[in-house]
Specification:
alpha+beta; Inorganic Pyrophosphatase; 4 strands; globular
Length: 121
């Protein structure tokens, strides 16, 4: 999620840096609590934002802002039946680690998929 005090539009690419991660747990399937999964949200600020330049980590977010972001995460999935629960907050290094882990997982999936295509061909 991009934290910025400037209006933007869907699809606009903004160079940013991660400052925190909102750690979230939810149902894998709607209305089915038998399997819970993590669905963390990375909080980022633009690298060139004047007002957000001092934001380096989760401690830069006031308790009020953190509470609003938690409420937004819950409200955004309210009608999906996912029973979202806030686990906590992680810092900038946790957010970067999540990005790196996700990128590595995506690369492994792509290699696996391309290996299947070669064996079928």
């Amino acid at each position: 999620m991009l934290l910025w005090d400037v209006a933007s539009y869907p699809g606009v690419v903004v160079q940013c840096r991660a400052i925190a991660v909102l750690q979230v747990e939810q149902n894998r399937k709607a209305h089915d609590r038998s399997e819970r999964v993590r669905n963390d949200r990375i909080m980022a600020v633009p690298t060139e934002a004047r007002r957000q330049n001092e934001m380096k980590d989760v401690v830069a977010l006031s308790a009020r802002v953190r509470q609003e972001l938690e409420s937004f995460a819950i409200a955004a999935t309210a009608l999906e039946g996912k029973d979202v629960q806030i686990v906590g907050w992680g810092d900038a290094s946790d957010a970067l680690e999540l990005v790196q882990d996700s990128a590595n997982q995506q690369r492994r999936k792509q290699r696996t998929a391309s290996g299947r295509k070669r064996t079928r061909g």
